[in-house]
Specification:
The chain is mainly alpha-helical and 102 residues long. The protein has 4 helices and no strands. It has one domain.
Length: 102
């Protein structure tokens, strides 16, 4: 493994910190930095997978060449992305509907 010589920093709320700490613990990760690295790498891998598959029109072929664990992981990444998008839209919906008069 290459040495980690770059740093990324961002602020989160106390609630987000607790959720991240608990999520890392559930998955056997030792700290939030490790959780963030794993999550970001999975996101980047999923984006690359989608770009390669969809741009080449070979999404099914690409998935077929993956082993079952990789396919399950890809489904997890996609599900996490969908879940995030649903949460984002759920937060945006009350704001949008507040501007609509009945």
């Amino acid at each position: 493994m290459k040495p980690k010589d770059r740093m990324v920093s961002f602020r989160i709320s106390a609630e987000e910190y607790d959720r991240l700490r608990k999520a890392g613990s559930v998955h056997g990760l030792t700290n939030i930095s490790e959780l963030a690295r794993v999550a970001m790498n999975r996101m980047l891998e999923a984006q690359q997978f989608q770009r390669e598959g969809f741009l080449n029109g070979t999404q099914q072929e690409t998935s077929a060449h993956l082993g079952l664990p990789e396919q399950v992981q890809e489904l997890r990444v996609q599900l996490e992305g969908l879940s995030s998008e649903v949460k984002r839209l759920s937060r945006a919906l009350p704001a949008a509907s507040a501007g609509i008069s009945e």
